[in-house]
Amino acid sequence: MPKTPERHVTVTPQIWQALRACVESGEFATVEDALEDAVRLWQHRRMQETREADSIGRRLRTSMEDTRPSLSEKEADREMHHFIENRKNAVRHGPH
User: Fold this and answer.
1) How far apart are CA 71 and CA 69, in angstroms?
2) What is the largest CA-CA distance in the chain?
3) Would you give the DSSP letter of residue 25?
């Protein structure tokens, strides 16, 4: 594998401690490996959020073009509550 240019990154002492703990526990061979994994997870989360936003946009457009009767206030509240709970669970549990 070609050598990549060296980069310097400043992290908080808490982040450094967490990175070192991952290496010392054997979860990762190096701090660099742990950082690469963290960046991959971050990228995955961003892609997932983009897909979700696109999906919401498509649903909004479809809804605005829909000529059927709207939901009642009670139905809309129930749907919104369900949506919010799903988002909370997704944030709480992270990517799978």
Assistant:
1) 7
2) 61
3) T
